[in-house]
Amino acid sequence: MTEILEQLAGRTVIVGSGLAGLMTALTLAPEPSVIVTRAALGAETSSAWAQGGIAASMGVDDRAELHLADTLAAGDGLCDPAVAAGIIAEAPAAIAALEQAGVRFDRNAAGELSLGLEAAHSRHRIVHAEGDGSGAAIIAALVRAVIQTPSITVLEGFEARRILMNGKRVAGLHCATASGAAVLRTSRVVLATGGIGGLYDATTNPMGNFGQGIALAARAGAVLADMEFVQFHPTALDSRRRPLALVSEAVRGEGAFLLNEKGERFMARITGAELAPRDVVARAISAEIARGGKVFLDARDALGSRFAARFPVIAALCGEAGIDPATDLIPVRPAVHYHMGGVATDANGRSSVPGLWVAGEAASTGLHGANRLASNSLLEAAVMGMRAARDISGAPASGAGCTIAGKLPAPADASLIRPIVSRHLGVLRNAGALQGAIASLLPLAEGDGAAADPAIVALLIAVFASLRMESRGAHARTDFPLKLANAGRRQMNLSQALEIARATSPYSLARSA
C-alpha cells in the first residue's frame, strides 16, 4: 500500500540535504517546502566532508575577473564563460547569505576573512570555517537554520526512488520509507543529491552517493551533459579506510610537496608543480603508482608542529592510520572526488524536464567545464541553490496530476558496479576499457534489479567517454592523448545513450542475433 502524503501536496520537494538542498529550502522560505533525505538532515553529504572551503574573490588583491580566468583555465576550454562569470560574481552575496544563516567563517585578528590558497588559484581566495572543517561547520549551521524555519518540513529516512510524471511534466516523487512506499504529489522537484563517487572503490565521497539524482532525472527523460568528466583528487590518504580520507590540496597550498618512494620531488619539473590543476597532479601520481612506486605528501618542513592546528580534521584522520604529519610522510593516491557532468541545467537550475530543477554536484551548469577549479563546488552549490529557489518562487505550484506510482523499485546497490567502473573508467582510459565497461554495464542498466540505477549512471559515463576521442581536463585517454582543436560540450538523454551502447556492445549484438 502506497501512502499519499496529501498534507504536503503542492509544496516544492527538495531531494538531498547538502549545501545546495539546504540553501534552496532556506531561500524559498517562507514559502513551504519539503526536504527529503535518506539519512539524517545534513548527514552522508559530500558538502559536510568538504575541507577547503568556498572560492570567492574577496581579497584586496583579487577581483571576479581573476577568479573567472582561473576557472576557465582549469575548465580546459569547456566552461560556459557566461554561466561561470555569473556564478563567480555572486560569490560575495553567497558568503553573506551563509553568514546570515549562521555560518561563522574564519577571520584574522583584524576581523577580515582569512583566505586560503589552493591549486590553480592565482590569489588567496578560499573562505573557510574551523580550519579544514569548512563543510561540516557550514552544514551544521544551515541544519540549525532549517530546523528553526517553520516553513520547511524535513522527511528523514525517505529515499527518492522515482520521479512521477504527468505526460512530460513532473507530478510527484515516489519514495521508500521505513513503513513502506510514499508519494509526494508536487509539480516542483529539486534534485540536490550530490555526486557519483560511490560508483568507485577509491573515493572521498559517501559510498552511498552513486549518482542517484542523475538516475532519477535520466529515467524522467532529462538531458545529461559532460558525463565523462570525473575529477580524481590527487591526494587521498592511502589507507584501508573506505571511503578514503581526503588530504586537502590546501595542505599543498601551505607549501607541502610530493615525493615518490625514491625521495624524488617528481612534480618539480611540471608547470605549477604541486599546485598544478588537479587532473595534472592526479595523472602524475597515477603514473608513479602504475610503475610500481609509491607517493607521499611531505608537510614536515612546511607545517611541522603547526599541522594539527591548521588542519585538525586531516591530522585526526592521519592519526587513525598511525601517521603524524608533523614528523611522518603522508601516503597518498588519487581518488574520485567530484563529477563535473550531470543533469544539464540552465543558469537558474532548470533541467529539460518541466518542473525539475537540479542544483549542486548532480547538475552540469557549465561552470566547471572539463575540470573543476578547487573550492568552486561549494560556491556553485550555494549560488545555484539560491537561484533555483528564486526561479521556483515564480513557477506555478500544483499537487494535482498522476499519482499512479506502480511497484516501488528495489533499493539501489552499487556493489556489482564498482569493480567494473574502477577497472575501466579510472584516471587513464582507452577504447578497449570503455567498450568493456559498456558491454558489462548495459545488461545491468536494462534490467530491473538493484544494480540498475547505478549501472545507468556508470553506463552514461562510459558512453560519453567513448565519444570523446581526445584527452582534456579530467578525461585522459591513452589512445587519444592530444586535444582536439574544435571540441565542445556534449548532451544527450538516456534513450540516446542506450542506443549508442546497444549499437556497440557485444552483449546487445549477440542478443539480437
CATH homology superfamily name of the largest domain:
FAD/NAD(P)-binding domain
CATH topology of the largest domain: FAD/NAD(P)-binding domain
Rg from Cα: 22 Å
Question: Which assembly state applies to the chains in this document?
Answer: single chain
Give the terminus-to-terminus CA distance: 42 Å
Give the overall average pLDDT: 94
Q: Report strand %.
A: 15-25%
Looking at the structure, what is the overall shape?
globular
Structural class: alpha/beta
DSSP E strands, number: 22
**Poorly predicted regions:** none
- Report the CATH architecture of the largest domain: 3-Layer(bba) Sandwich
Task: Compose a concise summary of this entry.
This protein has 513 residues and is of the alpha/beta class.
Defining key terms:
513 residues, FAD/NAD(P)-binding domain, Flavocytochrome C3, Chain A, domain 1, Methane Monooxygenase Hydroxylase, Chain G, domain 1, 3 domains, five-stranded parallel beta sheet, four-stranded mixed beta sheet, 22 strands, 33% helix, 18% strand
Description:
With 513 residues, the protein is α/β, with parallel strands linked by helices. The chain has three domains: 3-194 and 340-393, FAD/NAD(P)-binding domain (3-Layer(bba) Sandwich), CATH 3.50.50.60; 233-334, Alpha-Beta Complex (Flavocytochrome C3, Chain A, domain 1), CATH 3.90.700; 410-512, Methane Monooxygenase Hydroxylase, Chain G, domain 1 (Up-down Bundle). 33% of the residues lie in helices and 18% in strands. The chain has 17 helices and 22 strands. The protein has a five-stranded parallel β-sheet with strand order 7-3-2-11-18, with helices on one face. Strands 1-10-9-8 form a four-stranded mixed β-sheet. Strands 19-17-12-22 form a four-stranded mixed β-sheet. Strand 2, helix 1 and strand 3 form a beta-alpha-beta unit. Helix 7 (212-219) packs across helix 15 and helix 13 (418-424) runs antiparallel to helix 14 (431-445). The mean pLDDT is 94.
